[in-house]
Amino acid sequence: VASFVLVEQRVRWPLVNLRLFRNVPYDVVTIAGMFSNMAYTSFVFLSTLYLQEVRGLSPLQAGLVFLAPATAAAVAGPLSGRLVALDHPTLVMAGAMGVGGIGLLVLSASSNWFVYVVAFGLTGLGVGIGWAFASAATQQVVDPSRAGEAAGMTLTVLISMGGLAVAAV
User: Fold this and answer.
1) Alpha carbons 158 and 169: distance in angstroms, whole number
2) What is the pLDDT of residues 72-87, one digit of tens each?
3) Which residues of 54-88 are buried (b: 16+ CB within 10 A; e: fewer)?
4) 126/137 Cα distance (integer angstroms)
5) Which of 27, 57, 59, 69 is the most exposed place for a label (fewest CB within 10 A)?
6) pLDDT tens digits for 114-134?
7) Verdict on whether the full-model pTM lies above 0.85
8) What residues contact residue 68 under an 8 Å CB cut-off, 6+ apart?
C-alpha cells in the first residue's frame, strides 16, 4: 500500500487520484462498507462451520438455516438502491451497521433456534445493506467526473478486506 501511494503521487496519470481520500463522506462510506463486508464474509464463513461442527447440522440443514441471511441479503441490494434517495449516506451506513451489529450480538448469545434464525436474518440484512449501499452511496458523495474511480476504489477496498477477514478468521 505504501509503495502504491508513493508511485501514485509521482506519476503523471495516476491510477487513483489520492485527493479522492480527502472527501470525508466518501471515506466514511467506504470504511463502513469495508467493515460491513468484513463482518459479512467472516460471519458466513464461521456460521457454516458453527452450524455443522458445533450444532451438528447436516450440510442440507445448515443450508436451510442459511436461507434467512441469504434472503435478507438479497433484499438488502434493492433496498440499498432505494436508500440512496435519503441523501444521508453516512447515517444510512451507521444504521445498517447497527442492525448488523445487533444481529451479530443476538446471534452470538442465542441458543433457541427461532431466535438464532431471526438474528441470522437480521445480521444478513444489516451487513448486506452496508455492503451493497457502499457502492451506491459513493456515487452520491463524489463528483460525477470521479464516479468510476470512486466506485472502483471502493469495490477494491471492500473485496480485498473481506478476503483478508476470512483469511484472518
Assistant:
1) 16
2) 989 998 998 888 877 7
3) eeebeeeebeebbebbbebbebbeebbeebeeeee
4) 15
5) 59
6) 999 999 999 999 988 888 888
7) no
8) 117, 118, 120, 121, 124
